[in-house]
Amino acid sequence: VLFLRRLLPDAGRVMIAAACRQRLPKPWVSSLNTCSRAISSSSFQDKETKQQVEQRDDLQTEISRRTQTLKSFLTSTRRSLHQIPELMYQENKTSRYIQGMLQEHDIPYSTGWGVNKNTHVFPGEGGHGIVADIGSGQPPCVLLRADIDALPIHEQPHTHNKNFASKHDGKMHACGHDGHATMLIGAALILKQMESQIKQHGTVRLMFQPAEEGGAGAKRMIEEGVLTNKPPVDVAFGMHLWPTLPSHTIASRPGALMAAGDRFTIEISGIGGHAAMPHKAIDPIVTASSIIMNLQTLVSRTISPFESAVCSISAINGGAAFNIIPEKVTLKGTIRAFQETTLLSLKEKLNRIVTNTATSHGCSVDNIIYSPDHYPPLINDTDLYRTFSSNVGALLSKERCVRQLEYPSMASEDFSFIGQHVPSTFFFLGQGSSDSFKSDYGLHHPKFTLDEDVLPLGVELHANLALRALKKLTKQ
């Protein structure tokens, strides 16, 4: 089974499909089903010697022991960060808080990373990113990354958040970045305590990244040298808290994990007038409505059914009074796909649909503005994923497991820029409802909250991956 699993991750599905085509007897198909489930659930672990297992267990025991002492610290840190959410390129207080944590534990760092190159699009000067190296300062180098920015959402405090809700009106950590930053701070403390071991193998680089929510902060930091400064990064890991997965589970997949994505703004102009005399105006609201409906065919009628793509309009703004037809309307939305060529095709067809629809109504399109940096698809390195899968499996109880996702997510992540330069693996840390934590709200919801009980697991994951990857790189 393990042999087949290594050769062909989809072996189970192939076997069942073959059985159906050959119309084998049902008992045979049932037996193949059983074998398929065994294949699908097996991990990518290679055989380990007794000594390797003991060394692995010793390392895990030490990391786990140190992490348990940080539980209250992690909760306190996350709640402090949750109260001071800041939008991309404006993460001043957040950055200062993280710097204070690093200073307090004698972890050297540099700041000024992630300068905003597109101030005409995104407010704020940026430069709030932080990079900290722990270890010998020599190669090999493993990078761990966490994003730190928040969203323009007015928080509706959940039961869990009542006493530490956002203090910044209209801004909220609704995507778990307060948890991401907290877990990387916790990992920094553990790795600093174990620095003598790290120095024997190389360097761990911690990347606290601003402007993930559309601002391509990862790309800015890459341009500034986060991957190439000495010692250059060899491999990278990242994670995201994921409310649709059971709490304390971990999920990922080799290859494509998250979609390429771009955002757009459409500015439509008509002729304003009195709402009682619409025949003397050219109504951009009606035009915008037609554009929204026509864009529903963008994916269903222009993209192959064998490809995945999304087009969503998420904002419409125009008019301010019940009796005035406005002169202008603005639409905002996003397009997603797993192939760069498909994303480019979506843009071309969107432009055509918007322009032609507006013309047919007598309106004009002033601008169709896309993001300065669209996000590429997030592709997990297959070999690194296999290493990741076997390593983290040892952290979980028998009731929990490393899940290989059958399908990728249509969400986008600028960790994908890192994957274009170095082998990398990104994974989801489950924080869905459990016996001790109840929440039915997803990412980007004003009532979103996170399960603070998973924070120690995230710390252990960071520390384990960094140390094991360093040791493996040293042996190569």
TrEMBL record:
Domain Peptidase M20 dimerisation: residue ranges: 264-357
InterPro entries per UniProt: Amidohydrolase, Bact_exopeptidase_dim_dom, Peptidase_M20, Peptidase_M20_dimer
Any one GO MF annotation of this record: hydrolase activity
Gene3D superfamilies found in the cross-reference section: 3.30.70.360, Zn peptidases
SUPFAM superfamilies on file: Bacterial exopeptidase dimerisation domain (SSF55031), Zn-dependent exopeptidases (SSF53187)
Domain of life: Eukaryota
Keyword field contains Hydrolase: yes
Keywords assigned: Hydrolase
Family: Belongs to the peptidase M20 family.
Full protein name: Peptidase M20 dimerisation domain-containing protein
Species of origin: Ditylum brightwellii
